[in-house]
Write a structure and sequence with these properties.
The chain is an alpha/beta fold. It is globular and about 60 Å long.
Length: 300
């Protein structure tokens, strides 16, 4: 599929993947009459792509059902090994909702053992999003509840419309966050605030989410209902020209360093920096500075 996106950038779906080949959408025929629940599109120049993961399960408000989760796992596998992608945006194709969280109708049919295994799979899914080597941005237009907020928390950056609604609402359903929410929310907004939101199951809007540091940017919603996406895209376009390896190594240093004491974090930073030193992009950056011209980074 081809169409012109923002700024006349070329937008394309990634092609099918032959057996054993990485970097493209894997072939997997959808069941008769069923649309894909996760779509993947890329726009930008060759080697400078912005990938968009579009959640597309309107009848269930993008809830985390088995098919949805399987397709998202497949998409992460594609992106993890695609060096042409510099930023990933996760957004909803369903108006008024980002992701409504767990599919409780499916969950009600599971045994206790099946539930435990499926929630562990969700935990692995969120870890997979967090482990993508390039920066990830969640564009939150509507409701991001329970597992939907956990999905957004697994991203590096979050942009929300002021009218969006967010919350780890599991305690209102006899549950508590089990796909990373109890770990990622405190690291994002602090222990006390995270405890309050989890204990109460309270929902907050985009403005309050911004005020407590849950999202990086909040924007008024527009008539098209895609204000958060437009801001996320502008943020992605600001990241794309930067040196890809330096950005990736910075992400590793931050993520791994935040899990250890500062002395160990410094050691991690040194190891990451050492991997960046021999890159052609570092040489290009220095040459461009001396020659007083914009650098052209190639990711090598």
């Amino acid at each position: 599929m081809l169409r012109l996106g923002r700024g006349a950038a070329l937008l394309r779906t990634l092609p099918a993947q032959p057996p054993g080949e990485r970097g493209k959408i894997p072939r997997r025929a959808a069941a008769a009459g069923r649309k894909k629940e996760i779509l993947l599109e890329v726009h930008g120049e060759a080697g400078e792509g912005i990938a968009e993961i579009l959640m597309n399960r309107p009848h269930a408000r993008n809830s985390l059902g088995k098919v949805f989760v399987d397709e998202l796992f497949e998409t992460l596998e594609v992106l993890h090994f695609d060096e042409s992608i510099r930023v990933v945006i996760i957004k909803s194709k369903v108006k008024g909702v980002f992701c409504a969280g767990a599919d409780l109708k499916e969950r009600a049919k599971m045994s206790n053992t099946e539930t435990d295994h499926f929630v562990q799979r969700l935990r692995s899914l969120m870890n997979g999003i967090a482990a993508l080597p390039m920066p990830t941005i969640a564009a939150i237009e509507g409701h991001a509840l329970g597992g939907g907020l956990e999905l957004a928390l697994a991203c590096d950056l979050r942009v929300a419309a002021s009218s969006a609604k967010m919350g780890l609402i599991e305690t209102t359903r006899g549950l508590f966050p089990g796909a990373g929410g109890t770990q990622r929310l405190p690291r994002c907004i602090g222990l006390s605030r995270a405890k309050e939101l989890i204990f109460t199951g309270r929902q907050i809007d985009g403005q309050e989410a911004f005020s407590i540091g849950l999202v990086n940017h909040v924007v008024p919603q527009n008539e098209e209902g895609d204000a958060a996406y437009q801001r996320a895209l502008a943020l992605a376009e600001e990241i794309v020209p930067r040196a890809p390896i330096a950005v990736k190594m910075g992400k590793v240093a931050i993520n791994k360093g935040s899990e250890v004491d500062i002395a160990s974090g410094m050691a991690i930073e040194r190891m990451c920096y050492a991997q960046n030193i021999p890159t052609r992009d570092r040489e290009e950056g220095m040459a461009a500075f001396i020659e007083k011209r914009p650098p052209k980074f190639i990711g090598k």
